[in-house]
Amino acid sequence: MPSSKPEGVWADQPFQLLETPGKTRSLTNPTVYVASHMALVHNTFIRALNTIYLQAPHIPPTENHSFLIYCQAWSALLSLHHKTEEALLFPALEARIPSAKGILTTNVSQHEDFHDGLEKFERYCAEGIEGKVEFDAKKLQDMIDGFAETLMKHLAGEIETLMSLDGFGMGEEVMKIHEEYEVQVRKNIDAAKIAPLTLLNTDKTFEGGEHPYPVMPWFVPYVVKYILSRKYAGAWKFGCCDYWGQPRTLWMHRVREQ
Length: 258
Hints:
Blueprint lengths: L29 H26 L8 H33 L8 H9 L1 H15 L7 H28 L6 H16 L4 H9 L20 H7 L24 H4 L4
Helix pairs in contact: 1-2, 1-5, 1-6, 2-4, 2-6, 2-7, 3-5, 4-5
């Protein structure tokens, strides 16, 4: 699938997207597939964070509430991801792949390194939505700057850790654990926030569009767009892709053209 080029600066900066192991290795290798899938998930987080960082200075007062809901959805998605990793994925890998015991310790401890910064960001968004504080783009960007470096290091390091499992010769078990984890995660989401944010920051053209991601029935984007997105409808214009994973020009550029 050819990559489309949105107009103006896009969500591949300022925070750098991750290259997947599958870019240079076969996705038929179960560990490469799982690590690549995780990299694609992490890139969704990074693109969404980039859309927040880039567009914050261009948000007019009439859009403050919707933008903060969008920001809150991002923090909710990231928090859900890390909590379910700690509760489900990492324990399963260590329990069922004996040689992997202790290999994920660093990744878990890194969650604490950016916890306080992320919590501060979440609290600011909640208070802004409730009208307790005024929206301040510079303050929001400063908060992101406070945890972004540590977060990016963690997101990249986790892919390296998953790839290290390839040396244990238990790729099929890694794949099975991954599939079970994905099923459990879907049971715990606030679909009205998580689903739109995820699809609207998932670029299906990434690395030539060769990745089978996200894995879902064909009708899901229609359900998300026409049903699930309604509750917070004003928030989703800030995403960097459409519901079918095609990159689009960022809202801050589109609104200037009107």
